[in-house]
Amino acid sequence: MTTTTNRIMTLEEYLNYDDGTDTRYELVNGELVEMPSESDLNNAIAIFLLFAFGQFVPPRLLRRGTEIVVTGSRTTTRIPDLIVLTEDLATALRGSTRSIITSDMPPPALVVEIVSPGTENEQRDYRYKRSEYAARGIAEYWLVDPQRAVVIVLILVAGFYEEALFQGSDLIVSSTFPNLQLTAAQILLASN
């Protein structure tokens, strides 16, 4: 990831920022940070989960590429790999000119991050996003880590995430999707 500007941006400046390219950015503590494109495996896993979740919720409650404003010392936005909306959040997003979940909207039901290789990516997904998503009140946060061959499901309890780790033939346990019948291996091998 590369910091693109040397100045601190407000959320409004970020929302109006256009460098004339298709480059994806997150705003991290007010700094514009370029996000690398997804690996084919990460993309395949996200689409696999999109179809799996689509068996339990209508497509209008599923999002890829939607931004979410989270708390931090300065304004921070994240772009999760997959988001499951609540009905209230879907209503709040209706008619928006940009697919962004602002701080005055209800939190999503579930957010999925697929960890890309590299120490910086691991720190961002395991450490920073974990605390940001908990502070934002997101009830369930999945970390899908192909490099470690694990799926971690974090459930928000009294403001903190309780963690369950799944590997191989372990059946994923989800509060959001209690009838989901997927193993960690099925998710991690989505591109096969």
Automatic annotation (TrEMBL):
Keyword Hydrolase: yes
Keywords, alphabetical: Endonuclease, Hydrolase, Nuclease
InterPro entries reported in the protein's UniProt record: Nuclease_put_TT1808, Restrct_endonuc-II-like, Uma2
Domain Putative restriction endonuclease: 11-184
Molecular-function annotations in GO: endonuclease activity
Keyword Nuclease included in the entry's annotation: yes
Annotated protein name in UniProt: Uma2 family endonuclease
Species name: Limnofasciculus baicalensis BBK-W-15
